[in-house]
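User: Let's play a game. I give you a shape written as tokens, and you guess the letters that built it. Ready? Here's round one.
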């Protein structure tokens, strides 16, 4: 294969920032140095005005396929992910049929072969995500599944969740010591069922039923208590309010094996967006208050929140034209996440890179190949990002089959120039090549 050299970039990884060249050959980084003399016949890519990062990893992608290909396919989701700098995405079990059995997981893996990023299947906690029967977690763990989640639904029955945690802690004998992560969508449906946005000032103004923060925090309190008892490894998905951040902070201080993610939209948008009655701003959990956004950002800065995850949730365009209370919740996120972080978050690039790359890779159990340091001998899963390029978000121009981006028409700063998967440039100069 032809040697490829990324020249003069600002390399950002676990070791910090430094200027240098990166040489790649046959899927592996072969040299990193202040200056590399390109071998004869090699390809050279100028990165002097760009960041060179380990490929990004998304913990929370709704790929829709199988079953809802009119909204998204594994191929279009993976292409959008690659355009967003991702070399791996964790596919949620919210498919039709649900990813709750080895056969469905195998089907997803087969469909994902040749995709422009690695698609890592999660599996449901309960059959059909119905919260009644435990999935065959042992069989699924034996075939490589490391994250289990009911993806958009929280397990409502505390006795069942307790049994799931107890069972999960015994699966390391099957996985060779690799941990099983239980990713929980925290929502007490008895409190949230009638609500379509955050319960607060704007829901009162608009005369719209709201979801109280207690719908999220009560389940978190329950599961923290159960994790304390069982020793299970628990990951809280898309936490959205100040109280949730504090619960995670306290649990970590206690030494519990708990991690948490926040989404770009919960970090940057508030319930005031719903004043337009535009269903693109309907999401679950809902956009919260200014104080909640500030608390989430503080949680990123102090390490309470471990990852930025997109909760990429495509919907057929016509469904997002329904009235607000009838439209499905969810937003696109893969192509815009790193730009939103660079534009909106007052964090150093090393922190942003960690939140989007090596920290989620570790939670997903794929840090043997993604989120790796930019160093000789490491897999060439890399992205190159121009932090200064500005662009205007247009949902119709994205790879997704859906268009429901909450940043439609907004100018963002920072764009992915190249994404390299196992040494192959799957995105070159901002254009998908696979």
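Assistant: Ready! My guess for every position:
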């Amino acid at each position: 294969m032809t040697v490829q050299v990324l020249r003069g970039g600002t390399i950002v990884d676990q070791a910090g920032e430094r200027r240098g060249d990166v040489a790649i050959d046959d899927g592996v980084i072969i040299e990193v140095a202040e200056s590399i003399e390109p071998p004869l016949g090699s390809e050279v890519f100028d990165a002097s005005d760009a960041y060179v990062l380990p490929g990004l990893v998304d913990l929370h992608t709704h790929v829709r396929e199988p079953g809802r290909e009119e909204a998204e396919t594994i191929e279009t989701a993976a292409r959008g992910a690659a355009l967003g700098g991702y070399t791996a995405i964790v596919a949620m079990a919210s498919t039709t049929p649900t990813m709750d059995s080895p056969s469905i997981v195998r089907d997803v893996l087969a469909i994902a072969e040749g995709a422009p990023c690695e698609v890592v299947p999660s599996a449901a906690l309960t059959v059909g995500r119905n919260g009644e029967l435990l999935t065959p977690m042992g069989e699924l763990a034996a075939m490589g599944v490391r994250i289990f989640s009911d993806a958009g639904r929280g397990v409502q029955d505390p006795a069942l969740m307790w049994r799931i945690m107890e069972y999960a802690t015994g699966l390391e004998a099957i996985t060779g010591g690799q941990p099983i992560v239980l990713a929980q969508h925290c929502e007490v449906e008895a409190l949230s069922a009638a609500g379509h946005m955050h319960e607060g000032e704007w829901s009162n103004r608009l005369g719209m039923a709201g979801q109280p923060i207690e719908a999220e925090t009560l389940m978190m309190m329950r599961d923290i208590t159960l994790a304390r008892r069982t020793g299970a490894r628990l990951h809280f998905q898309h936490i959205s309010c100040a109280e949730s951040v504090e619960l995670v902070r306290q649990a970590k201080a206690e030494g519990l094996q708990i991690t948490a993610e926040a989404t770009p939209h919960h970090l940057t948008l508030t319930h005031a967006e719903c004043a337009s009655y535009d269903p693109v701003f309907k999401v679950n959990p809902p956009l919260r208050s200014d104080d909640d956004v500030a608390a989430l950002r503080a949680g990123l800065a102090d390490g309470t929140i471990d990852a930025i995850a997109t909760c990429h949730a495509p919907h057929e365009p016509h469904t997002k034209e329904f009235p607000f209370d009838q439209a499905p919740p969810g937003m696109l996120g893969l192509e815009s996440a790193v730009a939103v972080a660079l534009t909106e978050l007052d964090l150093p690039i090393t922190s942003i890179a960690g939140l989007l790359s090596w920290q989620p890779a570790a939670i997903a159990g794929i840090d043997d190949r993604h989120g790796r340091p930019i160093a000789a001998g490491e897999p060439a899963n890399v992205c190159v990002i121009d932090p200064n390029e500005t662009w205007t978000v247009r949902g119709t121009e994205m790879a997704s089959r859906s268009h429901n981006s909450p940043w439609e028409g907004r100018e963002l700063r920072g764009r992915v120039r190249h994404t390299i998967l196992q040494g192959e440039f799957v995105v070159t100069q901002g254009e998908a090549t696979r």
